[in-house]
Specification:
The complex is a heterodimer of chains A (342) and B (173).
Chain A lengths: L5 H6 L11 E2 L2 H6 L14 H5 L1 E7 L5 E4 L2 E6 L2 E3 L10 H11 L8 H6 L1 E3 L5 E11 L2 E14 L3 E2 L7 H4 E2 L2 E2 L2 E5 L5 H14 L9 E5 L20 E5 L3 H12 L3 E4 L5 H12 L3 E7 L3 H5 L2 H8 L5 E6 L7 E5 L5 E6 L2
Parallel strand pairs in A: 12-16, 12-17, 13-14, 13-15, 15-16
Antiparallel strand pairs in A: 1-9, 2-3, 2-8, 3-4, 4-5, 6-7, 7-8, 10-11, 17-18, 18-19
Helix pairs in contact in A: 8-9
Chain B lengths: L1 H49 L3 H9 L5 H14 L6 H12 L7 H10 L8 H48 L1
Helix pairs in contact in B: 1-2, 1-6, 2-3, 3-4, 5-6
Classes of the chains: A alpha/beta (342), B mainly alpha (173).
Chain lengths: 342, 173
């Protein structure tokens, strides 16, 4: 711990250390979408390795690359190798088969997803795609001849928000919260766990109705509308919906007490957030950035921050592991606490 | 004498029935083709309007009528749901060989259905539509030809059956 955290004692919460203990990797769901050649290879990895598996990359005629705990490995049969020369080389057929399984034999059902370049599969994993892009009227129509696939393994880390919950939920009151984080520091994971805990209810409090607008299917990892990640029992999720419209839709239809969205950035987002706040809802959102100052200097977000609407800022940093340092600031931008995961 | 008459009647009846059976084969094939056509139109609708994935689309369609073609769709959907790692084309072809043989479709029809499977599921709706429309056109053509053949050969087979029977009887007597 960088700084002794007296705050927790005051609120009297039980703080648990979660060393990736609550992490669940859904191996079966990953294997199901791979070509039969590659199935079973991942079963031979150690459990710790599987738990930390982040990415599987398939590129035609290139070695199979996987990323475990931010380190890159090549895979051949069931062995992890460090040299690309000994790695298994992906064939065109491997990729074609994998595509078929990813799309459940129905690529036509994923036209919009192809246009955005990714598909969310059962288990909430995100599959990024690249290949030959077909353009019509200056707009991307589809991707044909898909030659590169990046499977980003969805990880739920239940409990990763334990230490921050006391700062955003106090005396039955939720603060408008903005999570600031560089890419890959786990902001979506943190947001998901905050949503789950608030929705299920923390510390003997009854849960809160939460509406989530999940534009990129990352928070809930919905597969056919059903969240594959645990987002709590009082959570309504609009999957694949544009944020601005989604926020207004939720307010009108589901009367949530809290609305959570990922990666705000456009001025329309800010307007929608204004509307949400005026409607009496609490807002929990995330934004790309590395520090509070940097975010304050972004012209669009400036509007939001200058109005002093946001009451809690959580800045994520990676020191020893993904997003293990969380700095928490109050309304005025004064740091209240630093929490560090072990 | 009685035995002779009895035998002759039996020969006549069986040969006539045989003739009738063959004369109906065109109608039966065109019926099967029509059902296949209906199934494909439903599939096109599933793809265009509800965007349901192939295993579900096939299962849904199979529930809507009672015929070998429904069994064909159903068994493909069941196999796909097993996640065995086989491609849709492989499964489709295997099932076409197994199940469509039991129908009145002829080998050309089955071949067309197999060729159709090579592009199924791949890429966008437009491609699926073109693929299905192509097969539908082939089916329409086949139905037309069958109906023409039916008009031509229907009576022929029937009279052939009856006359063939009479010929056999005459020869035996």
């Amino acid at each position: 711990m960088i700084k002794q955290n007296s705050y927790h004692k005051k609120v009297g919460t039980g703080i648990y250390c979660f060393k990736k203990g609550g992490q669940v990797m859904k191996k079966e769901t990953v294997e199901k979408i791979l070509t039969t050649n590659l199935r079973g290879w991942f079963g031979s990895l150690k459990k710790e390795q599987l738990d930390l598996l982040q990415e599987i990359r398939l590129r035609v005629n290139k070695p199979l690359i996987i990323r475990i705990d931010n380190k890159e490995y090549f895979l051949n049969q069931d062995k992890l190798v460090t040299s690309s020369k000994r790695a298994y080389i992906i064939t065109e057929k491997d990729l074609k088969d994998t595509m078929e399984f990813i799309s459940n034999y129905s690529l036509y059902a994923f036209e919009d997803e192809l246009r955005n370049g990714y598909i969310t599969v059962d288990g909430g994993h995100r599959v990024g795609l690249a290949g030959k892009v077909v353009v019509e009227n200056n707009r991307v129509k589809t991707i044909k001849n898909i030659t590169c696939i990046n499977i980003r393994i969805s990880h739920e880390i239940k409990g990763c928000a334990n230490k921050v919950i006391p700062y955003i939920f106090q005396e039955n009151r939720i603060y408008h919260t903005l999570i600031i984080s560089p890419p890959r520091c786990g902001k979506t994971t943190l947001l998901r766990d905050i949503v789950r805990q608030l929705s299920d209810g923390v510390r003997n409090n009854t849960g809160i109705t939460i509406g989530v607008v999940d534009e990129r299917s990352e928070i809930g990892g919905c597969y056919r509308g059903i969240p594959q990640n645990d987002v709590g029992i009082r959570t309504d999720i609009l999957d694949g919906c544009p944020k601005t419209e989604g926020m207004l839709m939720l307010i009108r239809s589901m009367s949530p007490e809290v609305i959570a969205v990922d990666e705000i950035g456009s001025s329309e987002d800010i307007e929608a957030i204004d509307f949400v706040i005026n409607a009496g809802c609490k807002m929990i959102c995330t934004v790309h950035g590395s520090s509070l100052v940097e975010v304050k200097n972004k012209p669009i977000l400036e509007k939001l921050i200058d109005k002093n609407i946001i009451e809690r800022f959580i800045v994520l940093e990676s020191k020893n592991g993904v997003g293990d340092v969380k700095k928490i600031y109050d309304k005025q931008g004064k740091m209240i606490s630093i929490v560090v995961d072990n | 004498m009685v035995v002779k008459i009895l035998g002759a009647t039996l020969i006549l009846i069986s040969s006539s029935l045989l003739g009738f059976y063959y004369s109906k084969s065109y109608i039966r094939r065109s019926n099967d083709l029509r059902i296949l056509k209906k199934a494909l139109i439903l599939l096109r609708g599933e793809i265009n309007y509800s965007l349901s994935p192939m295993p579900e689309a096939l299962e849904d369609i199979s529930k809507r009528f009672d015929h070998e073609i429904a069994d064909f769709f159903k068994s493909i959907s069941e196999e796909l749901k097993l996640n065995s790692g086989k491609s849709l084309t492989e499964v489709w072809k295997k099932k076409a060989e197994e199940i469509l043989k039991r129908t009145y479709l002829n080998p050309t029809d089955i071949k067309n259905i197999m060729i159709f499977s090579e592009n199924i599921g791949y890429l966008d709706k437009e491609m699926q539509n073109n693929n299905i429309n192509l097969l539908l056109e082939q089916i329409n053509e086949e139905i037309k030809v069958t109906m023409e053949d039916d008009a031509k050969y229907n009576k022929l087979y029937r009279s052939l059956g009856v006359l063939g029977g009479i010929l056999v009887i005459v020869l035996f007597i």
